[in-house]
Amino acid sequence: MLQKICNAMSVASFVMSLMVVTGGGIMYMKRVEFMNNMILTLQDQMVDVIQNQIKMPNVTGPALLK
After folding, report:
1. Residue 46 resides in a domain
2. What are 2-57's pLDDT values in tens digits?
3. E strand or H helix at 54, and its extent?
4. Residue 23 located in a structural domain
5. Interior/surface letters 12-40, b for 16+ CB within 10 angstroms, e for the rest
6. Cα 9 from Cα 21, distance rounded (Å)
């Protein structure tokens, strides 16, 4: 009976370790895609912010008014 419990705990431990290693590997492989998406999102947001802050003048001034 005790041997069955120990075997079950051993299998459960192996499965959990395998899940942790697999999850870490997947995250390691996906980190580049995640960072690229984050950088592209930030660039798009910065373009919108900068365009809203810079106002183009409606009148060019006295250079064209003669």
Report:
1. yes
2. 999 999 999 999 999 999 999 999 999 999 899 999 999 999 889 888 877 777 66
3. none
4. yes
5. eeeeeeeeeeeeeeeeeeeeeeeeeeeee
6. 18
